Fold this sequence. Notes:
By secondary structure, the protein is mainly alpha-helical. It has 14 helices and no strands.
Amino acid sequence: MDYFIQLRGLMIEVMLPLTLLVAAGALWPHIYADANPELLRTQLNRVVMYIFYPCILFAVASSTPITPALLSVPLLVGIGTLVSGVLLYLLLYKSPLGKNLSDSTRAVLMIGGMWGNTFNIGAPALIFFFGKDAVRYAIYNDVLMTMPLVWSLGVWIATRLGSHEKGVNYPSVWRVMASMPPIWAFILGFASQQLGLTYQPLVSAAHFVGQAAIPVVLFVLGLTIPWRNLTPRPEILAAAAVKLLVMPLIVWLAARELFPVMGQAQYAAVVEATTPAMMTTLLLADRFKLDSATAGLIVGWTTVLFWLSLPLVMGLGMIK
């Protein structure tokens, strides 16, 4: 397909609805003066965590057979995440760029530069490039790579490199994972698929409910980004460049090395690597006393710059 024709489709089918939903969240408190952004954000996040996201996880897991190609997505994105983490550590802790930054700022920039919003923004992009069934790549990447690494390595970065809190007992990673409804929904769906118990009407019903997850989270993203404070700072732009441009390049190079003939799944991994910083960056910043203001800025800047970086990555031929 001609690049400019594909770019036009990307702008209309993906970027336009994403922009409208994020803009709606940004403008909502200004249109409705009685809106409480903090309360609204909390309540909507709970609805997503306990209803919408578990439903889409169950629907996909219960109807998707496991294949080596599917598993290559979390593998490749995981490689990109870890290599990017090393680069960010060198930039923020071992170079002049991070010399005058606090550890809480450095740590939150590492987290924001390593993990992307691979479902809520990644899934619409995947659907555009590869069709509606490509949502499975985002789901399996989230469950097999993002969640385990965020709540293990991400927590380690937050507590050991960032907050340096002593004498604080945090719940174990396994306890946190076990308390997350999406994990149990995925396990239930995966078990039904493996045992041949998938009931298609139930899958369709769960998918119908789960479709609300992405629009609601994008609305919340608009509420969350500190729009008035989006000033360009070198360390934030550097972390954004690693997340949006360097990580896709790493994943693409790893895919070419491990899979001489790249298929849809490997290109899907590159798409996943292009996504902006995940909103969980803010949650980790609040929970572990990191630099919450910088967390909001890295989420905001990567989200804004994603509108430019994805077409660039596509134009360089790393996505087909």
